[in-house]
Amino acid sequence: MLRGMAVLLLLQAAGELLSAGLDLPVPGNVIGMILLFAALRWDLVNLETVKEASELLLANLGLLFVPAGVGVMVYFDLIRKEWLPLLVATVFSTFAVMAVTGWVDQLLARKEQNHAE
Amino acid sequence: MLNEWLQSPLFSLTLTIGIYVLAQAVYRRTAIILFNPVALAIAGIIGVLLSLDIPYATYDRGGRYLLFLLGPAVVALGVPLYQRRQEIVRRKLPILAGVAAGALTSVITASGTAWLLGASSSTVRSMAPKSVTTPIAIGIAEKIGGISPLTAAIVVATGCLGGMCGPEFCRLIGIRSPASAGLAVGTAAHGIGTARMLEIDRLGGAIAGLAIGLNGLVTAIIVPLLFILFPV
Predict the structure, then answer these.
(1) CA-based, 20 to 30 A from A88: which of A33, A40, B100, B158?
(2) A70/B162 touch (CB, cutoff 8 Å), yes or no
(3) What's the structural domain count of chain B?
(4) Could you tell me the residue range of the domain that residue B107 belongs to?
């Protein structure tokens, strides 16, 4: 468990370093995710080492977003000023993205499957 | 004494975890999607802080411990990605095309709708990166002249909305496979959507996690270009 946590933190640090050093548009923790995948893929890290710590964090991922969400309260005034366009654009756009992404993926995946058969 | 406790990190953490557990119980009992635990907990905690007159900065002295754990948690998304690598590699083209189409749709519909409804230029720009994870979204907003705190608030609202009803919406419009739904929810609603997807389906959750990174990358590239082409 603790060894797994140490590996996750180490890879996050490596990700932060890469992100800052190469001036990448992607944050360090996302790069850390790719690094962990690569480390597992090429047997640099054993799955058993990181499994327990990862499961614990991922099972409670929602909780970890709550404090940042509470931060919205600081910007109530900013939101109130143009709340209608903000609300309509956010709701419409969120559903539009899900529909387009899901349909494109499903359509192409089915097409590939048909080709394979 | 009581006041000291209310101002302490111990109170923030107790409040956050306590309300979240309560929100989970309400959600499980009622099965009403509006009572998404993340959204419900955020609303509940804001209510408590406002009624007790506790400023956000004071709350954050405890909240930041949980926020810190978000870093290694995102790294941990590499585990389901690895476990489901065969299925994911097999779908690489649909995944890339889906994310690219979704990223473009997000910027155009978010900024476009706000613009059509007469929002100010800085608000239109703040809307552009709304579907990507907060640190990427803030970086993009700053680059194109948006208001980064407003972007952060929109990103959280987007995540809650996608987490709340993303999987249900996908089913409703005929997106049947968990893989496609995961890609849709992860692309539209970043980490909060991914958290929900992980509870429903392991492959869907793994793909949603991947979508956070891919959408962040694509959006970071296309948004500055789009605003050069369409300087609203």
Answers:
(1) B100
(2) no
(3) 2
(4) 78-229
Which amino acid, residue B78? Answer: G
For B41-60, the pLDDT digits (tens) are 999 999 999 999 999 999 99
Q: Looking at the structure, do residues B90 and B154 belong to the same domain, yes or no?
A: yes
Q: Are residues B82 and B67 in the same domain?
A: no
Task: Please judge whether A33 and B157 are an interchain contact, meaning their C-beta atoms are less than 8 angstroms apart.
Answer: no
**How many CA atoms does the CB half-sphere of B9 hold within 13 Å?**
8
Best residue in B79, B109, B140 to probe A by mutation, most A CBs within 10 Å?
A: B79
User: Is 0.90 surpassed by the pTM of this model?
Assistant: yes
In angstroms, rounded to a whole number, what is the distance separating the alpha carbons of residues B59 and B6? 9
Q: Which residues, including other chains, have CB under 8 Å from residue B50's CB and lie 6 or more apart? A: A73
The partner residue sitting opposite A65, judged by closest CB among B83, B98, B191, is: B191
Q: Do B217 and B136 fall into the same domain?
A: yes
Does residue B26 share a domain with residue B88?
A: no
Angle B37-51/B178-200 helices, nearest 10 degrees? 50
What's the pLDDT band for A24 if we cut at 50, 70, 90?
confident
Q: Are residues B22 and B88 in the same domain?
A: no
Check A108 against B97: CB less than 8 A apart.
yes
* Alpha-carbon Rg for chain B in angstroms: 19
- pLDDT of A114: 86
Q: Is B94 within 8 Å of A105 when comparing Cβ atoms?
A: yes
Q: Which of B71, B100, B129 is the last residue of a domain?
A: B71
Task: Please tell me whether residues B62 and B163 are part of one structural domain.
Answer: no
Residue A58 has which token pair? Answer: 């991922």
A94: nearest CA partner in chain B: B188
Answer for the pair A80, B73: CB distance below 8 angstroms, yes or no.
no
Suggest the residue from A31, A42, A70, A95 to mutate for an interface test with chain B (most B CBs closer than 10 A): A70
Same-domain pairing of B153 and B53: no
Q: How far is B94 from chain A (nearest CA, A)?
A: 5
Pair (B104, B48) in one structural domain: no
pLDDT by residue (tens digit) across B132-187? 999 889 989 988 999 989 999 999 999 999 999 999 999 999 999 999 999 999 99
Cβ contacts of A75 on chain B, cutoff 8 Å: 149-150, 152-153
Name the residue among A50, A55, A108 with its Cβ closest to that of B94: A108
